Amino acid sequence: MKLGSGIRKVLRHPPGARAVERDVDAELAFHVETRVDVLMARGLTREAADAQARREFGDLREARDEIAAIDRGRVGRERREDWWEAMRQDVRFAARALARRPSFLAITVLTLALGIGANAAIFSVVDAALLKPLPYADPDRLVSVWPEGAMMPGIFVEVRNGTRTLAPIAGYSGGVAVSMTGAAEPARLVQSDVTSRFFDVLGVKAEVGRTLVEGEDLPGRDRVAVLGHALWQQRFGGDRAVIGRSVVINGIARTVVGVMPRGFRFPSPDIDFWVPVSLDPSPANIGPYWGTSHLNVVGRLRPGVSVRQAEQEIATLVDRSRASFPWRMPDAWGKNVTVVPLERRVTGDVGPMLVVLFGSVAVVLLIACVNVANLLLSRAAAREREIAIRASLGAGRGRIVRQLLTESVMLALLGGLVGLGVGAAGVRALLLLLPAGMPRVTEVAIDGRVLAFTMVIALATGVTFGLAPALRASRPTLQTVLGATRNAGGSLARRRLSEWLVVAQIALGVVLVAGAGLLIKSFWRLHQVELGFRPEQVIAADIPIPSFPSDTAVRAQAFYEAVLERARTMPGVTSAALASVLPFGGTGSMQSSFASELEANPLPPGAPAPMLVRTVVSDDYFKTLGIPLLRGRSFDAADRSGASAVALVDDLTARRLWPNAEAIGQRFRPVWVKSWITVVGVVGTVKRDSLSSAGEVSVYLPMGRTAGFNFSTQMTLVVRGTGDLSALRSGVRGAVAAVDPTVPVNAVRPLEDLVSNSAARARFTMLLLATFAAVALTLGAVGIYGVVAYAVVRRTREIGVRMALGARATDVLGMVLREGGTLAAAGVTLGIIGAFGASRVLAGFLFGVTPNDPAVFIAVPTLLGLVAIGACLIPARRAARVDPMVALRSD
Amino acid sequence: MPQAGDLTLLQGTLDVLVLKALVFGARHGYAVASWIRETSDETLNVEDRALYVALHRLEDRGWVESEWGLSENNRKAKYYQLTPRGRAQLRAETTRWTTYAEAVFKVLGAAS
Predict the structure, then answer these.
(1) Contact, B68 vs B76, CB < 8 A?
(2) Which of residues 26-45 of A touch B (CB under 8 A)?
């Protein structure tokens, strides 16, 4: 028998599981038979010997199973080792092959890094905003009630008492700016007013102390506060002894009862602390309780309750609460009750925008893939002989495909690695660009999830762009390649494939560029919108109410008037005014709307009361903002004293409320008061909330004691000046400090910023899509250039022959351009079809542009066509310069 | 072949005996079993099943390797032989055993 080198071979080809058992059986059979031989030699009969041999051995089957299990483990391990060994070989080989062509390596890795990095960056935003579950207990049981509006406290209490589907349920207000005084120096902070079960609904416990307990949202028990983690760290140094200390917020002393854990930021990241909302149903509070203050509502579905069931129940409860109102509500009111998963509410309407961006960035990656696939294809052509030799040496097709795929996956992983760097830079850039109000923006980062995503797309990318070239390259038969010295035109099938890739690339480019074109045009349209006021040379500063006890509205007004007086007399100031809310001020009109009654149009029982939006302003507001007074008069000092209740309306409101009469002299009132307010003037209509929205029915009330409204809002100072605005900024701070140094003034900014912020999301989407389109265009141009240039090189000999036969340089130029042009035309045609489909998706983002905007759909294909022709021109001119003698000798 | 007075093998002893059995060249399982029994003057009796499990375990550890061959009685048999690692293992185990046995002897032979 011969052992030694043979064993190696056995190990290299391990048997399968079946074979393992067969081997063990044979081995044991040999043992038993040999024993039988020995026993028979001692004189036993065959039967007796056989029986004794088996008895001696014991249970053969059990032994077989035990031994086979050992062998199977070994065989499996060896197979895995072989696989890894082959892998190591492939990787080593691929690394050497790539290292031989550093420029090819650099171009492909950079192209891929660009595509992968852009995807990683966008994914990090998409992941934070849309994919990651909310950081609350059982987040999919959380629902938001009535998301587009908000509930008056009175209704909230009725719903809370009545609901059987949501437990618990809570109300909260979005952030309001307040001033905190007391221990340290005054600070302007953001507060959210919440009902007692708010933290229980979300299922988040306090890190230190406690959250609110039931009943703390009732008057008398509501003087407590729960701090956010950041505020606790910054203002109280993370001291646990803060529990029980007193802080003064807008003049009200509250006891700190708890600190929330880091990362708790509901309802928005800028919230510094939470206080109980006071659910005060007393007559003195009737306006806010039933009319002017609003709560967002969040609840937790009881087990087994569906969102739909909850919605039906809440709708019934809200409708029933209509009867509890102290006045008649419009019939249309309360009909639009919706219950949606909280996640959707948090995500808001950014979903579609992110999906569009994600789709676009995926297209960029696809285009990058096509480029790399084309590069690999032409490289494979150059390696045909090498591959053929490997095949002739016994490498199977699978082995060759695997080898080539290893190479492309390695390229992709390298691209992914560099792409992560690109992505990290991209995320930093995105964070600067992201529009305000982007949900969960603080969670945007390159984390494990983004890392995993990047590696997965890198792998998928490597397979995607590597597979077709690998399959193609592994196909040629030995004779054709080894026989022919050089194949003049390159394999026809391969050329077809790369031509199709270029067509696809141009088509994708057209889709992206068309999308970007539509967004750019609509952004431009947005800037053409008439604002109705002149924001340039105006600065705005939010000035919180100083820390007076809350009931001294007179002192608050005196403070604001003193600030206004100082601001007005600052050098360089032409006029100054105060307003409760500015156009584009970010405060939803919901917060300041109220049910009203018109004298000319008495409310019959059952008729809906019109909802008006109020803006409280000082005398010079219209002059400062440049809003024209169309008819009647503006406010004066007498109005401020509260002697006569007067109001101004804008043009739009005048026409809506009194369509057949002159608005001046008309009277209206909030439904809960007796005295009338007289309209004394009509001013121009301004855009209030955003550039694209329609106007609200709004009235201007003079700053002062207007019946029915507590003077409780913070005011914003607006100053129109000449020259440098930054001097005015510090001037404003100084003016406030001179009147009351405890009042913090943080946000002082040009009014123009507020306006442009409202277009921030449009700008963001447009900028990103335009960037992607530019990248797509560049990659597309490089792609078509590469393919045409390569074709020219491959056909140098043919071109030489043509020229030798009398073709002129212009003929050759034309021929190459024609071929490139055909590809471009096919790509552009397909792209236009695709763009028509894709632009439907964009419809929701467009303003003043239809998805089929003819200008865009003419300009974009023309642009792409020109770029494609331009990219072909370089190789075409090179072809035209071919020297027939050199070309013919080249082979 | 159970006989009265057999010694039960100590844990791990079987492996070193099998390795030793292979030190003179490739053997199949039956030969290994016979050699151990004969060499120990029939004192050490190895259970057949345990022997084969040991052989395959040693192969799994890379101390022996196997190949099919023809036996003396012209049957197909699986032959085992030591690998270089197996040889080293045998040397290490032999030293360990000798040291151990000497120590035990010393203790048992001590004159109080």
Answers:
(1) yes
(2) 26-28, 30-31, 33-35, 37
